Amino acid sequence: MKNSGIIARRTSVKNELGMHARPASKIAQIAELAESDVWLCANLTKVDATSIIDILTLCAVKGTKIVVEIKKQEDRVILDQIVNFFETGFGET
Amino acid sequence: MNISKSGQITIKGISGSPGICIGKAYIVDREGVNLIKRYPVSDTLVAKEIDRFKQAVLKAKNDHAKVIDSLDKDLGENLNILETHMVLFKDKMLYGKTIDTISEEKINAEWALRKVSREVKTMFEQIDDVYLQGRVNDIVQVTDKIMSYLVGAQDIKISDINKRVIIVAHDLSPADASQIQLERIKGFVTDRGGKDSHTSIVAKSLRIPSVFGLGLATISVKNDDILIVDGSTGTLIINPEEDTLFNYEERMAQFEEYRAGLERESHLPAITKNGVLLNLMANIELVEEVVAAKDYGATDIGLFRTEFLYLDLKRFPTEDELLCKYKELVELMTPQSVTIRTLDINGDKVNPYLATVEEINPSLGLRAVRFCLENEAIFITQLKAIFRAAAFGNIKLLIPMISCVEEILQVKQVMNKAILELEHEDKIFNKDIPLGVMIEVPSAVMVAEYLAEHVDFFSIGTNDLIQYSMAIDRQNRQVAHLYQALNPAVLKMIKMTYDAAKEKGIDLVMCGEMAGDPMNIPVLVGMGLTNFSMNSASIPEVKRLIRLLDTKKAKKTVKKIMTLSCVQEISDFISEEYKDLFPFDKSGE
Known about the structure:
The structure holds two protein chains of two kinds. Chain A has three helices and four strands; from the N terminus they run E-H-E-E-H-E-H. Chain A is α+β, with helices and mostly antiparallel strands. In chain B, the strands form two sheets. Chain B has a nine-stranded mixed β-sheet.
C-alpha cells in the first residue's frame, strides 16, 4: 500500500511576519516539483501548495498550526523540505 | 484638496520619504490597459487564444526577469518583491484559471484574465488582513504587465526619461521604481499606495522625497506643471504661487543643510553644550558592520549580538569558529572596546530538534542565560572563545536576561570551569575582562544593588525591560500602544538602576532602542547616563542633539517629569521644552 493514502506532517509558522508573499512563493516553487498533489491545511482550510495566491488566503500568522499533506510516497522529500522551511522560520528569524 | 484663487492646488497624502523637491511634472500613464474589450472565441480558435495568452505571460515574465537581472543584488527587500511577482505570473489561481476560463466560457484572453484577477482581488479584499489587502497591488501589477502584452500597449519605461522631473503616477510597481535613475528624478508622487506598500519601501531606500495615497494627483496634474513635493509632511502643491515657491525653496535649503550637517558632525566628539563628554557606541550583529559603525562616528562597540553565527550555521559553532569571528572584530576595533553579549535566544531556534517541550510563551521561557546554564557545554564553548579573543584586544563580557543574584553566581562558576579548561589546554587567553549583566527584567532592577556587588557594569536593555515591565507582547498589535519608553514606570526602573550603579561605583550603559531616539536623550542625559549604545544609523542624529544639549537644563527636565504620572504629559513636556532641538519633526510643519 505504498502509493495510496495521505502522508502528513505537522508544523507551524515560526517567523514574526507570518506567511507573507516571499515564503509563500518559495513554498509554491518547492511544491511545483512534486509528482502529485501537495496541500497545506490550517484554520480548517485546505489549499493547494503550488499556488501562492491560495497559500496567502490561509492568513497564517505566527503560531498558526499547519499540516502539510502529500498523496504519494515519492513526494516525501518535498514534504520534508517544506516542513523544514517552516521549522527554520522561513530563514528570516 | 485646497485650491487658491491663483490656481495653486494643495493635496495632502501620505508621507513616503522625507525631503523637499521642486520641479516639473512628468506623468506616467498606462493608457490602453484599462480599456478591455470582450468578444467570444469560437471552439476552433480556443486553443489559439490560450496560446496567445501563454505567449503574453511568457513575454511579460521574460521582461520581468530582465528587470531582475539588471538590478543590483544588494537591493534585498526590493528584489524579494520582484521575485514574488515572478512566481505569481504562473500561479494556478491566476494563470491556470485564466486558461480554464478561456476554454470554458469561450471568451478572449483579455477578458478572461480580467475576470480572474478581479475574483482574486475581491477574495483578498474580503479577508480582514491589512497585509493581504496590500497584496492586491502585486496581483494588479502582474496582471497589468500581462495585459499590456495582450493588448499590445507599450509600457512607458521610467529608465527612458531623460529630464530632471518629478514622476506622477497612478501607482508605481517595484519594477518601475527600481528603474528610477536618481540623477534624473527629483521625487515622485502616486495616487495609490500606503505606508506599508512596496513602493514606500523602495522610496525610502532611494532617499528621494515622495508622497503617496494622493487619490487624484494624476488627474489634477498636467505634464510640465510646476510641483512642490514635501515628503516630510506628505504634501503635494501644484502650480505654486510665488510666495509658496519662495518659502519652500528656503525650507529645501534648510533641510539639505540639516542633512549635510548631520553627516559632517558625525565625527565630532559627543560633548554637550556645557562640556560633558558622553560616549556613543554601536550595536552590531555582524563583523562587517564595523565599517559603518565607525563611519557614523561610534567610538566603541557597545553591544555585539552573537546569535547570528548560531542561526546561520543552524548548529552550534565550534570554539575555533567563534574565536575566528570574535578575534577579527576585536582586532578591527582595537584599542576601542567590544562588548560581547553571550547567546540570547532559545536553543530551539538554533536546532529545532533540541526542543523537548514546546514553550507556549518563549519570551518567558528557557532563553538566553537560562538556556546557557542548562546547556553548560554550549556556554563553555562560547566563553572559552571570548576569553581567547580577549588576548587580542579590549573585550567586555555581557550576560543577558539575568533575573536574580543566583544566576550571576552560577555564571561565574561556569566561567571558572572555562578558564580551567583553557589553562589545561595551554591556550593563550585573557581572563581579566570586565563582566557585566543586562538589566532587562524587572526583578533585576529590584535587586540591582545586590547584582552590582558581583559585576563590573550594567547594560540596560530597554526593549525587553519595557516589554516585561508593561507586560506586553511586542509582536501583539493589540497591545503595542503600551510599548512606551517614556512611561513613568520605565523611567523609574532606569532611575533605580542608575542609582544602584552609582552607589556601588560600577559603569552603566544603555543599549536598547530607547537610546537611539533623540526624543529620549534629554531625559536619559538628565538622569545622569553617559554611555549609550545604539544602531549605528541613529548615531549622527543623537550626536547632533547631544551637542546642543545642556545637562543642567536636562537635569531640571528630569526633576519635573519624574513628578508627572502619564506618558502623554511627559512626551508633551519634552517636545515643548526642546522644540528648538527637533527642527524636522515628522509630525508636521
